[in-house]
Amino acid sequence: MAVVEEKGQEKYTEDGTVDLQGRPVLRSKSGRWKACSFIVVYEIFERMAYFGIATNLVVYLTNKLHEGTVESSNSVSNWSGSVWLMPIAGAYVADAYLGRYWTFVISSCIYLMGMCLLTLAVSLPSLRPPQCAQGILDQDCPKASPLQKGIFFLALYIISIGTGGTKPNISTLGADQFDEFDTKERFYKLSFFNWWVSSIMIGVLFSSTFLVYIQDNVGWAFGYGLPTIGLAISITIFLVGTPFYRHRLPSGSPMTKMLQVFVAAMRKWKTLVPKDPNELHELSIEEYACSYKNKIDHTFFLRLNQVT
């Protein structure tokens, strides 16, 4: 275990986290619930915004853009797939280049741009087809023009790019606010994820009830405008907490390191592993602590230790 750095009576974190300028951070003035409160409140508003769009999207495509049910469902499925695939790229950029904070901030701006464009697309009469006359089935109504559909789906896919950078980084940024080398903070980290899931459920519940009612009974402009305002509020709340956040410096993508392990294990497949773990190529406990890493205990069951 690394020796705790002290300045007067104040202790620095021991897990390698720093402030936004890359300087060591004092444990008493950063992280923990002081920082996570901003992140949890952000998540409530952000989930409200996302599910405020996603929950009723098929209804908008069929009733307002006059797409068929099958076509609408297919369009929503394709968009949902992109929303869940983009975080792979967002996580890679954060780990290898920008770090979680800046990847999140940039992606949030992209996310908000998409939400604003989507709100305009449902609000301006020129960006949607004319309303059906009474008694005419939706599938027989005038279809949306290529321009109208193009702007609407452009907004949706801008949102998917934005969520690709926010979704994988906000929860891990929250976890970074607790020092793994401190027993009390390690316990608090488990509690954080309970609050995290609760914040998601609150946002989903609000959007699936209140916002869906607004969209169906008041209007789509107002029903999409509220989530957009909510997202803007959530980003503002997150930025207010910036002085309290702890950050990890980019250290390369874990996916690259995992591939290196598999390649090295394949090359050394027939290498004999010493029965005595002390003969393995390992750093000392002090060296692991200085690099803010935990030593992984040797096991005879996981055979990828041939890479050593």
TrEMBL record:
It holds the Pfam family PTR2. It is found in: Membrane. One of its GO terms (cellular component) is membrane. It is a multi-pass membrane protein. Gene3D superfamilies: MFS general substrate transporter like domains. GO terms for molecular function: transmembrane transporter activity. Belongs to the major facilitator superfamily. Proton-dependent oligopeptide transporter (POT/PTR) (TC 2.A.17) family. This is Uncharacterized protein.
